[in-house]
Design a protein that fits this description.
The complex is a heterodimer of chains A (about 475) and B (about 170).
Chain A: H1 3-28, H2 46-59, H3 61-64, E1 78-81, E2 84-87, H4 104-113, H5 128-131, H6 136-147, H7 169-178, H8 192-202, H9 208-211, E3 229-231, E4 234-236, H10 251-260, E5 262-263, E6 267-268, H11 273-280, H12 285-299, H13 304-318, H14 343-356, H15 373-376, H16 381-389, H17 411-425, H18 434-442, H19 463-469
Chain B: E1 2-6, E2 9-13, H1 21-28, E3 47-50, E4 53-56, E5 69-71, H2 84-91, H3 101-114, H4 120-126, H5 137-156, H6 159-166
Parallel strand pairs in B: 1-5
Antiparallel strand pairs in B: 1-2, 3-4, 3-5
Classes of the chains: A mainly alpha (about 475), B alpha+beta (about 170).
Chain lengths: ~475, ~170
């Protein structure tokens, strides 16, 4: 190859690269939408605001956009990601530090395309890959709701991300690879209820954000819908045909769980799921039922073997010998004698049995562990969290509680207890490296979100629902 | 046979290893301060300290406690010479029926031992697991606050130091 030919080839390459960069920037470029005066609250239809409140509860907006002890929607919550820490933004209508100067058009675009008013790409910690499915009409209601909240002055904290992720243009590349913009398209072969559930679960509800595994770049693996993921130091169990729940979920059970935060034969929501169900309490039960209809369809009908096993487990766990009266709430129990001299069995007998074997129904009593998804789960992460730190009482509300045992159980004792529970109450193989995981959880390496252990204090409470439930 | 250290004294315990600590304290060691309330770790009347942390003795098997330091309300002082926590509860007259009080004192002790200057918010948050059905919470909180002051005074050596720090 002679010199001039080489130069020509190089020149062509440079032109191609420049065209590529230019094309990418043209693709990535988003215009700024002019700042608008905040709409007068009196001009906003209260009925629209009410619908927006319900939708915001489905979207769990308050959970990420509120920091501990902070004002609702004023942002500032640290969201640890494998790539760095992102801080949630202020979505109150404060004109300086919130979204007060966002027109409805700017809000619609942020939900549909993941771009802020100024035209900057938002990080996918804001789940625009789900919110893109939300209809214009629902976004209008959400906008009406947010613009009628109390404006709070709170500057968003700068994200702590390494180069090049701190360049927002990089998000455009991520979008090119993983993001498909577009409102939800109903499946005409399915019922209206199923479509409503799919729309809510895949859109605002963003269930897959935790329950679908993510790839190395943090995007959900679309071919592994609901195959199980993780969230803030908790396992988000699979919601597809691999659901580890010993009793397969059905529409009634899942509706009750979503709408109340507990279900008699599946137990209580905890970890990051607790604020989700707390929010769902203010949502019409028909929406919980729609979501349950869709999610159970993804799980599919249990195989006859699984159903037979489930029937056996339920029978064993809920049967009481003749003459034994189920204890009333508030009744006193004494622990049963241990069935063996294994250390795990002894700990179980004294520390766990008085609630979990008392026959007192959930949520007042503890779930028999043979019915607990945690007993059958792929990792012991969730039961470690619960054994060490318990279920703190939700602030200002009634809720299931459990004492934590971090103060008395050391790592080896916790591992023994878990090994006993796994071997006794499930038909699954033993977990590996339990003691090491206990140590990591205790040292904070697992970033367990203890705040979310107690069901979200900032969740809009619905006293009527609570009154009928407990 | 389990060896327990309670309020600085070693005991050889006859009870089975899965016996809750509360039963051993009350029935074998005749320390009747810790109370049986719910038996479920939900009311706090059985609270004692293990290695400085508040635990529910009704759901804590003695086999976990070999070689660990257990403190009950009897370990905080005597009738003749009450400790600062007990003194503060007497001065504030914080008990009505009194059933929850030993548990309240032990949970509060665990906090103040770490941080005698705990704020009101910290105290309220820390005391959340313990229930009082008489409704003397405000006096209990005042007593805990007072106990913190007494502990700081004792640690500071002189009242003027404490006054300066408080100021």
């Amino acid at each position: 190859m002679n010199g001039s030919k080489l130069l020509r080839v190089l020149g062509a390459l440079v032109v191609l690269v420049l065209l590529g960069i230019g094309g990418f920037i043209a693709y990535a470029w988003e215009r700024e939408i002019p700042a608008a005066e905040p709409p007068a609250v009196s001009s906003i239809d209260p009925e629209l605001v009410q619908r927006g409140a319900t939708l915001a509860a489905v979207g769990n907006c308050n959970v990420c956009h509120t920091k501990e002890g902070g004002e609702v929607f004023a942002g500032g919550l640290a969201l640890p990601t494998p790539f760095g820490t992102i801080y949630s933004t202020n979505i109150t209508p404060d004109p300086e530090t919130g979204i007060g100067r966002w027109s409805e058009e700017a809000f619609q675009r942020s939900m549909r395309s993941g771009v802020d008013r100024e035209g900057r790409h938002l990080y996918p910690a804001f789940p625009f890959d789900h919110f893109t499915k939300v209809t214009d009409e629902d976004n209008r209601a959400l906008y009406a709701y947010l613009m009628t909240r109390k404006p709070v002055k709170a500057e968003a904290q700068a994200n702590d991300l390494p180069f090049p992720l701190n360049i927002r243009l990089a998000v455009a590349g991520w979008k090119l690879l993983f993001f498909r913009e577009g409102v939800y398209q109903p499946d005409t072969a399915q019922s209206d209820e199923w479509n409503r559930g799919h729309y809510l679960a895949d859109g605002l509800g963003h269930c897959g954000a935790c329950h679908t595994p993510r790839n190395s770049l943090g995007a959900e693996k679309k071919d592994q819908l609901f195959a199980g993921g993780e969230a803030e130091g908790w396992t988000a169990y699979a919601l597809n045909q691999n659901s580890p729940a010993p009793l397969p979920w059905d529409v009634d059970a899942l509706t009750h769980y979503l709408a109340n935060g507990w279900e008699e034969h599946h137990g209580v929501a905890r970890g990051p799921m607790a604020p989700v169900t707390a929010n769902m309490m203010s949502v019409p039960e028909s929406d919980a039922r729609a979501i349950a209809t869709y999610v159970t369809s993804v799980m599919g009908e249990p195989t006859p073997e699984r159903q037979a096993r489930a029937d056996k487990v339920r029978d064993q766990a809920t049967r009481h010998p003749p003459g034994i009266q189920v204890q009333a709430a508030g009744g006193q129990t004494v622990p049963v004698a241990a069935t063996s001299q294994d250390r795990g069995a002894l700990i179980y007998a004294a520390a766990c049995s008085s609630c979990h074997d008392a026959g007192r129904p959930v949520p007042y009593g503890g779930l028999p562990l043979a019915l607990s998804t945690a007993t059958y789960g792929p990792t012991p992460l969730n039961p470690i969290n619960v054994i060490l730190y318990g279920l703190p009482a939700p602030e200002g509300e009634r809720g299931p509680i459990m004492p934590g045992f971090a103060g008395v159980l050391d790592d080896a004792q916790t591992a023994d207890l878990l090994a006993y529970i796994r071997a006794t109450f499930s038909d699954k193989p033993a977990w590996d490296d339990v003691q090491d995981l206990v140590r990591q959880v205790r040292s904070g390496k697992e970033h367990t979100d203890l705040q979310s252990l107690s069901s979200g204090g900032s969740a809009p409470a619905n006293p009527t629902r609570r009154e009928t439930s407990w | 046979m389990v060896a327990l250290t309670v309020n600085g004294q070693s005991h050889q315990i006859e009870a089975d290893p899965d016996t809750p600590l509360l039963y051993v304290l009350r029935d074998e060691l005749h320390l009747h301060g810790a109370k049986y309330g719910c038996g479920l770790g939900q009311c706090g009347s059985c609270t004692v300290m293990v290695d400085g942390q508040a635990v529910f003795s009704c759901v804590t098997p003695v086999l976990l406690l070999e070689g660990r330091e257990i403190t009950t309300v009897e370990g905080l002082g005597t009738i003749e010479s009450p400790g600062p926590m007990q003194q503060a509860f007497i001065e504030e007259q914080a008990a009505q029926c009194g059933y929850c009080i030993p548990g309240m004192m032990m949970r509060a002790q665990a906090l103040l031992q770490r941080n005698p200057g705990a704020s009101d918010e910290e105290i309220v948050a820390h005391m959340e697991p313990n229930l009082c059905r008489c409704g003397t919470h405000m006096r209990i909180l005042a007593a805990i606050k007072r106990a913190g002051g007494l502990m700081q005074m004792a640690a500071g050596g002189s009242t003027t130091d404490t006054a300066k720090r408080a100021g």
